[in-house]
Design a protein that fits this description.
The protein is an alpha+beta fold. It has helices spanning about 5-10, 85-110, 130-145, 160, 220-240, and strands at about 5, 15-25, 30, 35, 50, 55-60, 65-70, 75-80, 110-115, 120-125, 150-155, 175-180, 185-190, 205-210, 215-220. A hairpin with a 2-residue loop joins strand 14 (about 205-210) and strand 15 (about 215-220). It is globular.
Length: about 240
């Protein structure tokens, strides 16, 4: 069984470990006694980085083990380094989704049916289309929770104890349920990585709507999106000789 350091400290990016098993396939893979590399799951893509300087190209759960697919084989004692920019980006998008999903429930009773974390933007499918004014209200509410920098508590519960919590959705099956709670706001079962406080999300920006599908960006992606808009607007202002 692999010890999952990414659950103990999602900000850990450098760790020591030992190879306990090699995995054969199209590319070499290894199972470590412990790892900070998050495997694909819960709508969140896997981490990237290096193990002893060798690139990690995929990370996946295999029963109780976490398998790291590499460009070259490694053995013995190793040092793993997680790509922090990718990890932080995924934490911002994933936690931002939790806040936005709860905001839609509170604003207009629209439940989140599914979540997709993309390379450029993310999306949630709601249980119904939402009016423009409710999109704005939900976006504002989610950002207020970010700006308040509320604490985020994460822990494992038995299914019986999980049912006593104010969960946004019923908990999944299993002997242990991992619950992510935002103080006085959201409570959800989730296997992804999340920040210690909501302020680390940075900001939440809705960038498009397609029926009941809401597209959004969080954190550094929001800054990139705003810069792109600003550049385009300035170019149009110059061509049309007009104000914004």
């Amino acid at each position: 069984m692999t010890r999952k350091l990414y659950y103990e400290d999602p900000y850990l990016i450098r760790f020591e470990a030992r190879v306990v098993r090699s995995v054969t396939g199209e590319k070499p893979g290894v199972v470590l006694d412990q790892t900070a590399f998050f495997p694909t799951g819960g709508g969140q893509p896997h981490d990237l980085g290096t193990i002893n300087g060798v690139s990690v190209v995929d990370v996946a759960e295999q029963g109780d083990d976490v398998v790291h697919t590499l460009t070259h084989a490694v053995q013995g004692d190793v040092i793993g380094i997680v790509d922090w920019e990718r990890r932080r980006d995924h934490m911002q998008q994933h936690h931002g989704q939790h806040l936005l999903s709860e905001a839609f429930v509170r604003v207009c009773k629209a439940e989140t049916v599914s979540f997709h974390l993309g390379a450029e933007e993310s999306s949630i499918d709601l249980s119904k289309p939402v009016a423009p004014i409710d999109l704005e209200r939900a976006e504002t509410l989610a950002n207020m929770v970010v700006f308040e920098n509320r604490p985020v508590e994460i822990g494992f519960f038995t299914p019986e104890d999980a049912k006593k919590l104010p969960l946004r959705k019923p908990p999944p099956g299993g002997e242990r349920v991992r619950i992510v709670q935002v103080q006085d706001f959201d409570c959800s079962a989730c296997c992804g990585t999340h920040p210690r406080r909501t302020g680390d999300v940075g900001s939440i920006m809705i960038v498009g709507v397609d029926g009941a599908r809401v597209h959004f960006v969080c954190g550094a992606r929001g800054l990139k999106y705003a810069r792109g808009n600003s550049t385009a607007i300035r170019a149009l202002m110059g061509k049309l000789s007009c104000s914004r």
